[in-house]
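Lab notebook, bench 4. Continuing the backlog of folding jobs that were queued last week. Each job is logged with the same field layout so the records can be merged later without manual cleanup. Today's entry covers RNA helicase, a 742-residue chain. Filled in by technician R.K.

JOB TYPE: sequence-to-structure
TARGET: RNA helicase
LENGTH: 742
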Amino acid sequence: MPSLLSDPLSSEGLKKSKHKKAKEQSSPLEQEDIGKMKIKKSRKRKADEEDKSDIVTDSSPEVPEKKKKKPEANGLAVKKLKGEETVEPESGSDVDDPNALSNFRISKTLVETLNSRGIKALFPIQAMTFDLILDGFDLVGRARTGQGKTLAFVLPMLESLINGRIKASRKTGYGRPPSVLVLLPTRELAVQVHSDFEVYGGAVGLSSCCVYGGAPFRAQELSIKRGVDIVVGTPGRVKDHLERGTLDLRALNFRVLDEADEMLRMGFVEDVELILGKVEDASKVQTLLFSATLPDWVKEISARFLKADKKTADLVGNEKLKASASVRHLALPCLKSTRQQILPDIIRCYSSGGRTIIFTETKESASELSGLLPGSRALHGDVMQQQREVILTGFRSGKFLVLVATNVAARGLDINDVQLIIQCEPPRDVEAYIHRSGRTGRAGNTGVAILLYEPKYKFSVSRIERESGVKFEHISAPQPADIAESVGSEAANAISSVSDSVIPVFRSQAEELLNSSGLPAVDLLAKALAKAAGFLDIKKRSLLSSLENYVTLHLQTGNTIYSPSWVLNIKCISNLLVIMDFVRFVFSVLGRYLPQEKVQNLESVSITADSYGVVFDVPADDVNEFLEGKGFCTLPLDEAKKTLPKLLRRFKTRLALSLSRSWKHCLHCKIGITKAPTQGEEGLVVEVVVFMVDNVVADSPVVEVAAIVAEEVVEVEAGITSSRGIERYSCFNPNFVAGNSL
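JOB STATUS: finished
OUTPUT FIELD FOLLOWS
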């Protein structure tokens, strides 16, 4: 009788002779147990073997014509019991899904185990690679994060070991050497992948062990010595076992490099080469590379480890969008000093009550933030391995919902219901952003990724957009109304869930409070909701800088402020002068009806992109004074309530004031530009405009005004160099002597 793993063509005559009878007897439930044969092997043999690395792009395998079969037990066909009813298949069943488990050569035990974990069909990367791996090809697999790369190699390898071509040659018994070696870059990833082998490998009688640094060596040694089928580990600890002679790779059938780009890029090349070199006959070993990203240089290095007829299964290809499409990407300008103030509100507004991971660049920042966020934990390189496992277990189980981590947790960790990812600053490379944001929106779910950045590093946000294809939604820090809308309903539900049995006990206090407060009942209830949500008061917050106790105002001029050509052609000096003159004009207008000290306390000034206005921050205590005084001003001045208008460029108040104050000293200036701007990979090349006082009267101070109008380092006239960033200026120096550096 044909087994589940037999070639459908090899039993064609038997199928034809039994087809009519089977069609009358077999039920869809039996069909589900039996499964349908996947793509005919003759179809796969049509691949162009002359191509050294075939690219597989079709993730929807052909489903053979529906044929009723007799139910099978342990791979053998059995007769249908008399009296069993035939049930017509329901529309939309997994028989209609080309990626349904029944369409692949997966044994009944593994199908049942997958079903018990809610898996009814393979993900595209799994469907695309299953037959290639089962048929013995070396393979490079690439898919976006969260698309099931781990099971893409776990399932076909297990089938090969228990039912496939390797079954006869696989070592068994006490002390057997491993048949599979899986290498991963971090301990957390190794533990996670090992857990999948424990579940699915254990279901079919295969044993596995996990080896990594930070855990007792002796326990790992004893586990290997007893005999295992699968070893999962990090390169460093696997290397230690090889050098001590506790790990034997002579009987290896599979070697897997998971997160291959990270393994080969982050200094593991020598360790990996040493480990792979321990295989006596590499031609008998099947090598698999899996990763979310595979740059060209990684492919070149990986070519040394794979056979010439390797296959490539690529779900990304040359698409620019490499980040998960199920994630909403947001960018929020935020000064480092205000980060800890707005993070709790961001979590309240965007986490939807789910788990949140906050990524920082340093261990110190992770520890500091976790100490400031109630109920959070830190995960970084200084945390002991045992404590790491406790932290990850607690996060997965929901004992706490906020994890503050460095890059150690960024790759491959599959934690359910991570709703929100916050990156405290733009990462150094785009791939890091992709992997971090990929911790949410996994397995068909949706999520939110928020990138915090200081305004002077906005060019980094543009770079991520340009290189990854991600389009950020630019948002401001959550405002009181946003927070109330987000958490108010939760507080209301919490109060509604309280049993009516408490009413008699608390009624007298409630009546006393209502009578003494002098507030309407609805207002008093609003205060109760605020308290339940954790708010004792509501602080104003700037839309422009996210500073607490500041309010953003919008002044509209009604006239064009600048010429857009200034952005592209700095030779139009008059446009820069117009902007400088406008900033001075704004302060002069405000100074007409406000004390000078109030005007000078403005925190920032930004011109709107439509060229008709300016926005700026004022202390919350001064807002009414500004708005009440606008009657003396003919220009509209109002509070920016929800969102900012699109802005051209932010000018620090210090710059604006310096320019306006020094203007009178530049009446007889000469203007020099070192070089014309060019369009480069990082945007406009930085230019410095130097205003030098020339032929001024003897008692006038010598003045230099420098305005950096892009994001990089520049050369100033006469060889003077400046490495100041976009918001760092030396604008007014009465003691400047020509020839001195900035």
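OBSERVATION: The two ends are 87 Å apart (CA to CA).
SIGNED: R.K.
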